[in-house]
Amino acid sequence: MTASSYNGSSIPWFSMTLSPNTTLSIRNARVLLPDGSFQLADVWVEGGVIREIGPNLARFRTAEASAQAEATPTPTADTVIDAHQLTLLPGVIDPQVHFREPGLEHKEDLTTASRACARGGVTSFLEMPNTKPLTINQTALNDKLTRAAQKSFVNFGFFIGATSENLPDLQTATPTPGIKIFMGSMHGDLLVDEESSLDRIFATGTRLIAVHAEDQARIAQRRKEFAGITDPAIHSVIQDNQAALNATQLALKLSKKYQRRLHILHLSTAEEAELLRQDKPAWVTAEVTPQHLLLNTGDYQKLGSLIQMNPPIRSAHDNEVLWQALQDGVIDFIATDHAPHTLAEKGQANTTNPAAEDASSTTVFLEPAKVPSGMPGVETSLPLMLTQAMQGRCTVAQVSQWMSTAVAKAYGIVGKGAIAPGYDADLVLVDLDNYHPVLREELQTKCGWSPFEGWNLTGWPAVTIVGGQVVYDRGQFNQQVRGRALTFNA
């Protein structure tokens, strides 16, 4: 195979396929090292694995330069990227997404979602079980793994969903990062809200349990109380902070009873953060979404039902407490809860740019119970958080810790989450010097909209690399790249 090079304009590597001996060299990058420091260095990748990191690696020299250095000329790599001092980070691992395949492909599918991942610097994802059919047994899990192997541009893993009846499947289905329990905001078989059923699941086995923690009984009662109100902001009143706190308290109680590994998905309230600050066993982790950090109930005026999600967007006070909990390590990492719906389903089919105008002046809203909850996120999460870093809210190293390293550690994902020899070459080169707005016409997600449309962000991925292969470069995609199933330590 002849060597090729990258200069930001031509893409000769599109015809390349990975073999055990395929090599990639990244030159002149500002590399984030595992200790949180940055080094201007070169990275050598072979067979999809990082082999060497260091300044001015001899193997990157041209034959002429090697001769001038009185060194033995060494062969160049199959692909050479001159990063021009862009920042090189571990690829993002998004541990909570809903990619809608199978059964709901009009909203999203594995091809469009993973392409959005590649554009957003997400090199691995963990997907939830509320598809059609539900992912509640080995057969359904195998089907998703097969689909992803054929379609996904990035690496993948799939949760097994808990019902009140599938306890044996929860112990044997593999590979999976864990068991997903919907304690609320769900209907049908995936709703497990009875404490006796929850107790049986927590008591059986050792596999990680990830919970959507909302009190379904309280939500049902408050939905009746506020019936007929169509203001989108009522969603945050119906599914209030107490509903989230009640369920998180119950999950924590059961986890402590059995010392069962527990992960609390999309923590959204100040009260939950304070609960964990006071009482968080070593085997419990929690996550937060960018939207629960950056959006609040004041944004309903502009965005309306676009920002309806479960658990709901909260107050500005909740934003601040969640930020502090993330900074302090009470919250361990970030997930997007990417959950796309069409604009028609959101009741905003006639708005040309819903995130750029006052939705309340152009839209007649439905009751929240008649609007699907969720929003897209994989494409914008990294630039959103890196913009916060560049504005002084946190550091770039913290963002990478929250969006990659800590996720890999929590789920025992093998070979991911750091730029170091022996780790998989899942990498993203980001541009921290320039800003670019979120534009609808550039979005890859099938739903075609973002609540952050118009936000001017920095840290957009320039190049995304999956398993040592360039999958995305400044708006263009390598259609031949496919991710692999993630491996989880027991």
CATH class of one domain: Alpha Beta
The assigned CATH architecture of one domain is Alpha-Beta Barrel
Helicity, in percent? 25-40%
The biggest sheet, with number of strands, parallel, antiparallel or mixed sense and barrel status, is: 10 strands, mixed
Number of strands: 19
Which residues sit in consecutive blocks of at least 5 with pLDDT less than 50? 1-17
Using the coordinates shown, work out and report the CATH topology of one domain: TIM Barrel
Provide a descriptive summary of the structure in words.
By secondary structure, this protein is of the alpha/beta class. It has a domain at about 90-415: TIM Barrel. About 30% of the residues lie in helices and about 20% in strands. It is built from 14 helices and 19 strands. The chain has helices at about 65-70, 110-120, 140-150, 165-170, 195-205, 215-225, 235-240, 240-260, 270-280, 290-295, 300-305, 315-330, 380-390, 395-410, and strands at about 5, 25-30, 40-45, 50-55, 80, 85-90, 90-95, 120-125, 155-160, 160, 180, 210, 260-265, 285-290, 335, 425-435, 455-465, 470-475, 475. The strands form 3 sheets. Strands 1, 2, 3, 4, 5, 6, 16, 17, 18 and 19 form a 10-stranded mixed beta sheet that branches. The chain has a 6-stranded parallel beta sheet with strand order 10-11-12-13-14-15. A 3-stranded parallel beta sheet has the order 7-8-9. Strand 13 (about 260-265), helix 9 and strand 14 form a beta-alpha-beta unit. It is globular and about 70 Å long. The chain starts with a strand and ends in a 13-residue tail after the last strand. About 55% of the residues are buried. The model is unreliable at about 1-15 (pLDDT under 50). Its cofactor is Zn(2+).
